[in-house]
Amino acid sequence: MALRDFFGRLRGGATQPTPETPNPDAPPPVAEIPPPEPEAPPAEITPPEAEAPARNGWFARLKAGLSRSTAKLTDSVVSLLHKRRLDDEALEELEETLITADLGVAASRRIVEGFRRTRFGKEVSDEEVKAALADEIAAILDPVARPMEIIPARAPHVVLVVGVNGTGKTTTIAKLGRHYAEQGLKIGFVAGDTFRAAAVEQLQVWAGRTSARFFAPAKPGADAAGLAFDALTAARADGLDLLLVDTAGRLHNKSALMEELRKIIRVIKRVDGAAPHSVLLVLDATTGQNAVQQVKVFKEMVDVTGLAVTKLDGSAKGGVVVALAQEFGLPVHVVGVGEKAEDLRPFAARDFARGLMGLD
Ligand SMILES: Nc1nc2c(ncn2[C@@H]2O[C@H](COP(=O)(O)OP(=O)(O)OP(=O)(O)O)[C@@H](O)[C@H]2O)c(=O)[nH]1
Ligand SMILES: [Mg+2]
């Protein structure tokens, strides 16, 4: 099965030299952070044609996964606009309906303005309304539908995975790891959620299935930053291509979590000043507008580089992806519609928009 470049672009190119300070007691690392790595001209591996037939199967799953969100959105929009002229009042009600379907105020307004420009005063059929909504939504999603760019030559490319508890961080690591391992990358998992033995075991089981190197804390509650430092040092020595770092979602308060995440990043930078190369925030779609709040909070704590949105299958609030795109413009790399590895896939704007509207 052609999984190459499935979750994101893989880029070749020489590893950029980074200062090494393999001593955790070294002076504070902040001053040592080198300027951002100049991006080497990409030796890009573009998605193979062979993916095309697979799309249908995935699209069907995405559409089925989104069905609860679709029902919530289309039922209300269609009944609202059925055989009705698009006048000011109808457009106002449409905006309210979209907000209720978790699309957020800004995106809802933008969509309605699109309708006003192109269809004001007209009576539109149900199918036309859905298609037009899908187009407006796709236009909002398109700029954020970007793959997570993994550069194995960074040896390893480090992805820090963050998010509140239960959003799907550990399973997302497992799923990503499996796919990149199938592409031939040497993978490592770091069990940075050190407080919960179950969390460590959960990742260890996945590491076994994936033949990933597994970095566990010496004992429950061991310092996550120290573990990350040791893991990255070993990963570099072993020539791993990709290191996925799990983190705790819940600490006793926000400032403790912020301190822990910042410490992990500080310490990682002592090994590789350009790492972590990606900070993936995992969001649970069932939490609706809470997900928007979580992005705000995590953006304050760390430099989030992209999003994964899970559990779209269990959610009637899939519209929140539109709100996230409009509000933050952060790349949405992958979406999840189930617990199996193949249920996590790259985010495609048009597919998502049409799936959300129940269209093929
Ligand atoms: N239905 C569904 N379940 C999912 C999806 N993604 C993850 N899950 C499930 O959500 C539950 C929580 O996932 P975890 O990966 O353990 O979440 P976590 O963020 O690591 O949680 P903590 O370690 O407790 O912070 C698991 O039972 C997963 O199987 C998805 O896309 N759809
Ligand atoms: Mg976890």
Report on this model:
This protein is elongated. It has an eight-stranded mixed beta sheet with strand order 3-2-4-1-5-6-7-8, sandwiched between helices. It is built from twelve helices and eight strands. Helix 7 links the parallel strand 2 and strand 3. Helix content is 46%, strand content 10%. With 360 residues, it is an alpha/beta fold. It binds guanosine-5'-triphosphate and magnesium ion. The site of magnesium ion has 5 residues, from helix 6.
Largest sheet: 8 strands, mixed
Distance between the termini: 24 Å
Instruction: Report the uncertain regions.
Output: 13-51
Compressed to H and E, one letter per element, the order equals HHHHHEHEHEHEHEHEHEEH
| Overall morphology | elongated
Tell me, rounded to a whole number, the average pLDDT. Answer: 87
User: Which percent bin holds the helix content?
Assistant: 40-55%
Q: Give the quaternary arrangement of the chains.
A: single chain
Q: What would you call the structural class?
A: alpha/beta
Give me some keywords for this one.
8-stranded mixed β-sheet; single chain; alpha/beta; 8 strands; binds magnesium ion; 360 residues; binds guanosine-5'-triphosphate; elongated
